[in-house]
């Protein structure tokens, strides 16, 4: 029985043979049972993209890996296309959206948003200050290649808040980037071949 299950899902997320044998993929969305989700994850590697250097754990937010979690249902995936808030509440949805943003060269937006979410969960004052400095250097500083696009008013607010960083130092900046992703990137994501394939929606006809 186990051999038949493994043959149906010949591509698994690269987390070691023991993990693959213990939990074979059970989510096959296409008629030929090609395990789209497992293939999509395996093709991108453990850090979300082929050939990318591992992130510095001290400067980037942590996001749970999908292979340890229950895979999203088709209804959940289709729900991502109905609500940006629903997409961003889902760990799986954020991973798919992040991969889409990487293709648009705007991955820093969701990385910044995730870093702010992580900062808001921090309670130790020293850790708050350290993480706030990392976030500022990575995403706010004009010298950073990952600088996010903020208007001058919000940037000034962040600069004032950095005098005494708190878990909410970047709240206004985070909201502005969230709004930018919602209005600018999200509509393209919903209409992208990536999302349509995962949601098993018909691709747009091109004439």
Task: Describe this structure in a few short sentences.
This protein is mostly helical and 207 residues long. Helix content is 55%, strand content 0%.
Protein architecture, described:
The N and C termini lie far apart (about 45 Å). The longest helix is centred in the last third of the chain and has 20 residues. The chain has about 210 residues and is mainly alpha-helical. It is built from 11 helices and no strands. Helices cover about 55% and strands about 0% of the residues.
The SSE order reads HHHHHHHHHHH
Tell me the structural class: mainly alpha
What is the CA-CA span between the terminal residues? 46 Å
Radius of gyration: 19 Å
**Amount of beta strand:** under 5%
Largest sheet: none
Query: Helical percent range?
Result: 55-70%
What are the low-pLDDT stretches, counting only 5+ consecutive residues below 50? 1-36, 44-67
The averaged pLDDT comes out at 77
- Tally of individual helices: 11
Q: Judging from the principal axes of the Cα atoms, what is the shape?
A: elongated
Number of strands: 0
Features:
207 residues, mainly alpha, elongated, disordered N terminus
């Amino acid at each position: 029985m186990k051999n038949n299950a493994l043959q149906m899902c010949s591509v698994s997320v690269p987390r070691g043979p023991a993990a693959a044998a213990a939990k074979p993929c059970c989510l096959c969305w296409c008629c030929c049972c090609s395990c789209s989700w497992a293939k999509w994850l395996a093709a991108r590697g453990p850090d979300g993209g082929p050939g990318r250097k591992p992130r510095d754990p001290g400067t980037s937010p942590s996001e749970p890996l999908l292979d340890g979690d229950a895979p999203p249902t088709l209804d959940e995936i289709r729900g991502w296309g109905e609500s940006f808030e629903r997409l961003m509440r889902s760990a799986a949805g954020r991973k798919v959206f992040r991969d889409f943003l990487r293709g648009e060269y705007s991955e820093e937006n969701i990385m910044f948003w995730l870093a702010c979410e992580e900062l808001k969960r921090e309670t130790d004052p020293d850790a708050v200050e350290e993480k706030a400095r990392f976030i500022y250097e990575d995403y706010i500083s004009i010298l950073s290649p990952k600088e996010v696009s903020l208007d001058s008013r919000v940037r000034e607010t962040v600069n004032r808040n950095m005098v005494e960083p708190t878990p909410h130092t970047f709240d206004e900046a985070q909201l502005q980037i969230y709004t930018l992703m919602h209005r600018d990137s999200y509509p393209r994501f919903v209409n992208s071949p990536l999302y349509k394939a995962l949601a098993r929606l018909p691709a747009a006809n091109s004439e």
